[in-house]
Amino acid sequence: MTVPAPPPPGLDQSPTSNGRFQRVSLRNRVTWLAAICVAGAVALVSVAAFVTVHDSLYQQLDDNLTERAVEAAEGPLVRTADLQQVPVAFFVAANFKISVLSADGVVVGPPDRPPLSYAELAVARGESRESLRTDPRTNSRVVAVPTGQNAALVMSSPLAPTQRTLAQLSVVLVVMGGAGILLAAAAGTAVARAGLRPVQRLTAAAERVALTGDLRPIPVGGDDELARLTTSFNGMLIALAESQERQRRLVADAGHELRTPLTSLRTNLELLMASARPGAPTLSEQDRAEMFADVEAQVTELSALVGDLVELAREDTPQAVHEPVDLVDVVERALSRARRRAAGVEFDVHLQPWVMMGDATALERAVLNLLDNAAKWSPDGGRVRVDLHPDEPTSGAVVLEVADSGPGISTADRPYVFERFYRSSDARPLPGSGLGLSIVKQVAERHGGTVWAGEAPEGGALLRMSLPGSTPYIEQQ
Questions:
Q1: Which of 95-99, 251-255, 295-299, 358-362 has the lowest mean pLDDT?
Q2: Which of 29, 155, 414, 421 has its CA 20 to 30 A from that of 257?
Q3: Which of 156, 166, 147, 165 is nearest to 94 (CA)?
Q4: What whole-number distance in Å separates Cα of residue 238 and Cα of residue 369?
């Protein structure tokens, strides 16, 4: 029995809270996030306000108490043996209590005064300029200032009014903060509901596509980030619909093109098999040879058609193009193959150096298709011109021109020669599947290029493939 190794220290072994959080809806997460952010802001502001008001009130109380004590100590009425002549009513109205402490510890004052401490005695003896403290037993603030006669005037003021003010302020801050948090949660819910409505439409559209295959775009309103997301989603739906349509047409066209050679092949094979049965009419050697030749031609045609279909399907698949390619080498390799296939055709080649980023195998297949097409239409002893040159000095593109010496392409057929399975009336008697030039178009477009068909100065067809890139010298810079 294998014992599992313990998890590394520091990792949470309990059920992760992240998974539980992910199960919460996005709208609730936005609501909670807004409430938590506002709660944090309210807490910081409330604490800062409470601390500021607390310090301000206590500083104001200390300043007022000290000022009154100094004024009383400098007045002539506190210098009597007792405090009978001091305007006590004033201090009582101001909620103050006064007593005089001599340097020898004798206290003159009301009986309910706060108990005195060594701090006040030090002021009476001249050891300290003043003292200020809080007496917890009477919950009052006590200040002592010298009177100039080896005595100190001690004045106290209760802290209850200030504490009540702070308590009321804390209640107000808590109530207003709670209301602000609730309001933020409500606003977060409303904003999340309104802001996530386009996301809900995208979700519904994605579910509809998954269930029904319906690729209709969804309505787009506004120009914010969600609107751009919806637009991108619609673009994806359109691209998917176009891909499905291309696949459907490819299957339909392939089935149509395969039907004729397969039917002919089946017919010939059935005739050959029937003639081999006992008692069946025999075929002459000439008819048998012609049938075998037809079967061989049909198998060759089917092989070429299947190969073109496989190549076309491969080119339909998105592929990364990141390999440096010397286009001259690509054209020369394609020329060597084309010369072996068309020995009776002369190739007039003019190539200028050019490099690009691309797929060398796909580019060679496209160039070979252009050369095979030109050789097929050129008569024996004809000439095919192959010209590779920059399009314009500053365009950053190269043009591969392939011109044959055949009858040329009619104006009506030129827009369709690069379509799949398209074959003009003149091309139907000739071998071919109608896929070669469509492969050329797909390879060019995958590399950021274009294709074009027209009339060559020699009188035949002129096919052009434009591709991006640069000369080797510019590439090295």
A1: 251-255
A2: 414
A3: 156
A4: 30
Please give the pLDDT value at position 464.
92
In whole angstroms, what is the distance from residue 299 CA to residue 261 CA?
Answer: 8
Q: Which two tokens stand for residue 198?
A: 């386009």
Selection from 97-101, 129-133, 221-225 with the highest mean pLDDT: 129-133
Q: Which CATH superfamily is domain 320-476 in?
A: Histidine kinase-like ATPase, C-terminal domain (3.30.565.10)
Q: Report domain extents, the chain.
A: 22-195, 213-317, 320-476
Q: Could you check whether 22-195 and 320-476 share the same CATH topology? A: no
**Kind and range of the H or E run holding 99:** strand 97-102
Q: How far apart (Å, rounded) are the C-alpha atoms in residues 184 and 35?
A: 6
Cα–Cα distance list, 128 to 62, 69, 118, 120, 124 (Å):
17, 15, 11, 9, 8
* Contact partners, residue 7, CB within 8 Å, separation at least 6: 13
Which residues lie below 8 Å from residue 4, measured CB to CB, with a gap of 6+? none
CA distance readout (Å), 453 to 382, 396, 440, 447, 463: 20, 21, 12, 18, 5
For residue 371, pLDDT over 80 is answered with yes
Average pLDDT, the chain: 78
Closest CA to 153 of 61, 92, 71, 59: 71
d(CA 65, CA 98): 11
State pTM to two decimals: 0.47
Tens digits of per-residue pLDDT, 301-320?
677 667 666 766 665 555 55
Helix axes 285-316, 225-275, angle to 10 degrees: 170
Average pLDDT over residues 347-372: 88
Distance CA(239)–CA(64), nearest Å, equals: 80
SS3 463: strand
Give the pLDDT confidence score for residue 76 in this predicted structure: 59
pLDDT at residue 467, rounded to an integer:
92
Instruction: Specify the DSSP element, H or E, that contains 314.
Output: helix 285-316
Tell me: domain 213-317, CATH 1.10.287, correct? yes
Spatial separation of the C-alpha atoms in residues 7 and 360, rounded to whole Å: 50
Residue that is written with structure tokens 């100590």 in the block: 73
Q: What is the mean pLDDT of residues 52-65?
A: 90
Q: Report d(CA 76, CA 215) in Å as an integer.
A: 100
Task: For residue range 257-297, list pLDDT tens digits in order.
Answer: 667 677 777 887 887 788 777 777 777 778 778 778 777 77
Which residues are paired to 152 by β-bridges? 101, 146
DSSP code per residue over 235-293: HHHHHHHHHHHHHHHHHHHHHHHHHHHHHHHHHHHHHHHHHTSTTSPPPPHHHHHHHHH
Residue 362 corresponds to which tokens in the numbers above? 């796909």
- CA-nearest of 367, 364, 365, 368 to 342 is 368
**To 5 degrees, how large is the angle CA 127–CA 133–CA 138?**
130
What fold, for 22-195?
Beta-Lactamase (3.30.450)
